[in-house]
């Protein structure tokens, strides 16, 4: 893995920051997925481990988040560690003009690892350059969301297993706000590591995928189709990956409203235009307001709707990343013991 540490050196997993998906090579992805597979009994509460007993995660989210923030925290708790949360600018000294450098210098002494989300592209890397502990990027503006790309690919791999398809040869349609959507940026970069992928990029022209990312896909030898038409382009794909209009990156709500609801998928569109086993993904939150409704609730009983399995997988992948970065991946099972309370049917 090409990871830049605080001195700008390339390092392997232990002690590494995870800032961009471009740090990963294909064999690194396999390592993450192999550890994630082993996390399932802990996430399902069949067993528990205390391998990170005493460790502290600084979970710093300066932008709204539900899944990413809570699944980082939950993953850390499931490994036996404790979580300290900072949310919102207003409640931190950043609101008093403190630099990311100073904040990082101080807060990294209070934690063993930091997960961070921030509205500016490049901010998490800037913070990491002053941090004395590993920093995991939970989303920096419209730039990147590397842990989401890993959990998306992990989901794709698992969903395709039973369909006789694999990531090499994958056909995927990415739909919606491809300009500002950091999840599709990171996922596209990650797909460049694989072979013979067909990527159909469906967005309004104004919200198209950044040219550098399209070029990266083409340089990887992939077949890239760019379109602003939904129905005819979701016919021959394994995955439809829908995204939300990233309204917080627009200069006004009115501007975002122009694009809201432009690409809706409901059961009738799915039945008419998709293959019967096409997998439906979305990083969530899906915008369920009537004027947007990008993935209709009438899909909720469709077995190919993978959005909640995708969110569940986020815990496994983030557990794996903590275990690798803090170098305990081979010690997790040492402290394993049964869970004594009622754990329900997970
Ligand atoms: C995404 C994000 O914040 O980039 N969600 C997520 O992390 N699961 C996508 C979004 O907010 O639309």
Keywords:
346 residues, alpha/beta, Rossmann fold, 2 domains, 5-stranded parallel sheet, globular, binds N-carbamoyl-L-aspartate
Describe the structure.
It is built from ten helices and 13 strands. The chain has helices spanning 26-43, 67-78, 100-107, 123-130, 146-161, 182-191, 211-219, 253-257, 267-273, 307-325; strands at 3-4, 10-11, 47-48, 56-61, 82-87, 113-118, 135-140, 171-175, 198-202, 223-227, 239-242, 279-281, 337-338. The protein has a five-stranded parallel beta sheet with strand order 10-9-8-11-12, with helices on one face. The protein has a four-stranded parallel beta sheet with strand order 5-4-6-7, with helices on both faces. Strands 1-2 form a two-stranded antiparallel sheet. With 346 residues, it is α/β, with parallel strands linked by helices. The longest helix is centred in the C-terminal third of the chain and has 19 residues, at 307-325. It has two domains: 2-141 and 312-338, Aspartate/ornithine carbamoyltransferase (Rossmann fold), CATH 3.40.50; 146-305, 3-Layer(aba) Sandwich (Rossmann fold). Mean pLDDT is 94; it is low at 5-11. The site of N-carbamoyl-L-aspartate has 11 residues, from helix 2 and helix 6. It is an enzyme of class 2 (transferase). Heterododecamer (2C3:3R2) of six catalytic PyrB chains organized as two trimers (C3), and six regulatory PyrI chains organized as three dimers (R2). One of its GO terms (biological process) is 'de novo' pyrimidine nucleobase biosynthetic process. Residues 17-157 form the Aspartate/ornithine carbamoyltransferase carbamoyl-P binding domain.
